[in-house]
Amino acid sequence: MDYGKGKIYTLSEEEIRILSMKPSDVLKERIAAGGANEDALKAFAEMQGLFKNVHDFLDLWAATFMSSTYELGGNEALSKAMYKVMWGPWSKKMEHYWDMSFHDQVIMSVNGGRMSHDVGVVFDYEDDEKLAFHMEPCGSGQMLREKGVYEGEVVLALCEPHHCTGGLDKFPCYCVHAPIGDQCAIDKCGYPQWVMEYPETVASCACQYICYKRKEDIPEKYWTRVGRVKPKSK
Description:
Number of helices: 7
Structural class: alpha+beta
Distance between the termini: 36 Å
Largest sheet: 4 strands, antiparallel
Radius of gyration: 19 Å
Oligomer: single chain
CATH architecture: 2-Layer Sandwich
Number of domains: 1
CATH topology: Muramoyl-pentapeptide Carboxypeptidase, domain 2
Mean pLDDT: 94
Order of helices and strands: HHHHEEHEEHEEH
CATH class: Alpha Beta
Helix content: 40-55%
Number of strands: 6
Strand content: 5-15%
C-alpha cells in the first residue's frame, strides 16, 4: 500500500518522535534516563512481553467470537452485535471531538491505536485539508492475519460485502470494528472521527488513517460505504 510521504507541520519534531514510538519504548527511555538499573529495565521488558501475549490472545478471542457470530447469522448478526460493542466508547469520544483543535484531534486519533496495541506510527503526509498516518505495524487486524487465522484447517470468517465491511469483499471479521466505528461516530454527531483507506487485501498491511481539518471536507464516499448519508453543508 502506498502511504505517501511528506512534511508534517501540525506536530512538533519532538511530538512526532514520541508518537512514532511504542508507548512502552517511551517509558523505557524515560526509565533509563532516570538512572534505572539493568534489573529494572529487564523487569519492564518482561512486562512488555506479557502485555503483548495477553493483548494478542484477547484479539484472537474477540475475532473468534466475531467469526462465530458471522457464521451463525451473516453480516446482519455481526453488524448488530458489533454496533452494541462499539456504540458506548465511540459515542463518548465523539461528544467534543469536533470542538477540539486539529492538533489535539491528531494526538487523540494517533493515541487510539498506539495505546491500545503498544505500537508506533508513521506519519505519511499533511496538506491543507488533512493529515495521514498508519500504525507500524498494525497491532490488530494485520497481527491476526499474519498469525494465519484466515487460512488453514480452522479458519475465521472473511465477510461478504456489506455496510459493516465498507462494501468490500473478503473483509476479515475482526476488522469490521472499523466501519462500525464510523457508523457510531456518524450516528452520534453526523461525522466520523477519522476516515480509513484499506489495502487491497485488508489487513495484509496497516490501514491508513486520515484526519481532516474541516469535517465538511470529508468526502461523501466515507458515509455511503457504511450506509449513512453525509449532512448537507450549511
